[in-house]
Amino acid sequence: MKSNLSFIALFLLVSSIATITGYYLSTQLEKTDIKYEEMAGLLWPSPKTLGTFNAINHDNVVVNTELFNNQWSMIFFGYTHCPDICPITMNTLSSAYEQLQDDPPQIIFISVDSKRDTPAGLSQYLNYFNDQFIGLIDQPTQDNLSQQIGIVYYANPPSENKQYTVDHSASIFIIDPKSRVVGKLSPPHAPNQIVQDFKRIKAFISSKG
Amino acid sequence: MRLNYQHKIISILLLPILSIALATNGSLSFSDAWVQEAPPNANVMAAYMTIYNPTLQPIKLVRASSDMFSAIEFHRTIIKQDRAYMIKQDALTITKTLKLERGSYHLMLISPKQSLRVGDTVTITFYSEQGNAYPLVIAVKK
Fold first, then answer.
1. CA–CA gap between residue A140 and residue A53 (Å, rounded)
2. Which of A2, A140, A181, B118 has the most CB atoms at less than 10 Å from its CB?
3. Residue A171: closest C-alpha in chain B
4. Residue closest to A131 by CA, chosen among A107, A112, A99
5. Strands (E), chain A
């Protein structure tokens, strides 16, 4: 009887150790398989697929996910009453875009200021940086683009000059031809870095089929 | 009259008093000032510069104005965890050197009276807490 109990105790001990070791090894094996963790800005293995978002574009047309079908896109959130970070980033994206002319992505500026930004105003604003750039106005509705991509923005109280600023994400998001958010490039942005990160992410995602 | 020994001594003694006077008269120097060209329909523009205070006391600039803009505000961009915050500043305090540059402190120039292009110049006047005015002519650049 006593020897049976000892045997059971020993068996339980060994099997516990085996289970723990096996689990640990399996996580280690998973890790060695993952090289994409080293890739700057890549959102993988579960990129978010964008659903219906009903944004208005710079031509005053309602657009949806068909905008992203079969082509790569880069998205920046901003607003036209932003004097510093938005024009800087748009200039940077313009330079990066010039380097990607062999297979250019769509460059999309999404306004976080639907109160002041209009389609016509947005069109004229973006034309200054590049006439190929696309403008969208994020709508204050549920499941809008900003919510789906996962960013929030905040309009600060107006000043005595009746001007208000909007705090917003300064990242550049990369959307693949399957409408998936596959990249998030962190500021500060430089044209060469954007080009390099974009090309790497594009190559990686394309290799996944 | 011929400068005698006493005259020379007095002049030399006056020099430090003169320098102290100069050091505390509220002088600021501005360098590398430029207005960033913006889209023609932009309601706001940014101006950047380096402000140097050679005096021994901090100088606080409490407002700025220009005939070219309806208003000017001081702002600071701060990027934290990939978010850009735009924080209005009540004043710009220059202890030694203050750099207004992209992604940091800047002037927000509101409602330009006309479309400004590279090569145009604007006059912006800063006012200190002491009531001194610092006019500055700045060129628009890209």
1. 11
2. A181
3. B82
4. A107
5. 48-49, 55-57, 62-63, 73-78, 106-111, 134-137, 154-155, 166-169, 172-175, 180-185
Task: Kindly determine whether residue B77 and residue A85, on different chains, have CB atoms separated by under 8 Å.
Answer: yes
Alpha-carbon distance of B68 to A39, in angstroms, equals 47
Q: Which residue has the tokens 């790497």?
A: A200
Separation between Cα atoms, residue A130 and residue A95, nearest integer Å: 10
What mean pLDDT is predicted for residues B47-60? 96
Greatest CA separation for chain B:
72
- The per-residue b/e assignment along A114-147, b for 16 or more CB within 10 angstroms, e otherwise, is eeebbbebbbbbbbbbbeebbbbbbbeeeebbbe
Place of tokens 């800063």: B126
Q: In the predicted model, what is the mean pLDDT of residues A191-199?
A: 96
What is the number of CB-based contacts under 8 A between chain A and chain B?
88
Q: Tokens representing A88?
A: 């800087």
Phi-psi region of A54 (alpha: psi -120 to 50; beta: other; left: phi over 0): left
pTM for this predicted structure:
0.82
B109: which chain A residues are within 8 Å (Cβ-Cβ)? 83
